[in-house]
What we know:
It is a single chain. The protein is elongated, with a radius of gyration of 19 Å. By secondary structure, it is mostly helical. It contains 5 helices and no strands. The chain has one domain (3-105).
Amino acid sequence: MDPETAMFAGTAGTTLVTLLTTEVWQRARDGIASLWRRAEPERAAAISAELEVTREDLLAAQADGDLESRSELGREWQGRIRRLLAAHPEETEALRTLLNDLAPYTPAGPSVTQHATASGNARVYQAGRDQNFDRR
């Protein structure tokens, strides 16, 4: 598999997992299942069911403040999509079209949650972007 397709599969997996927690999750699920229905029809129903389980896992993790599950599930779906595209490269354009159709519903940019604990004389410096310090 060429690196560009592998990178696209990675982006698709991450986007899919993000969309599973939005109002268009059913549309995302149905679109991904349709890719499998064309390429590997015997697995389409299982893929659809696995996407629903992934959604339930994501929502539970979100409620518990579990930050690792989203990236873990994203990597899982990245691998599945990469393997699908490796076996059925003809589905690449269909996936690209699906993601373009769903792009307006994709939350803008990644969200960042930071947690820190300082004790004693410790200091914590956190920034969502640039951080500048002046020497005294």
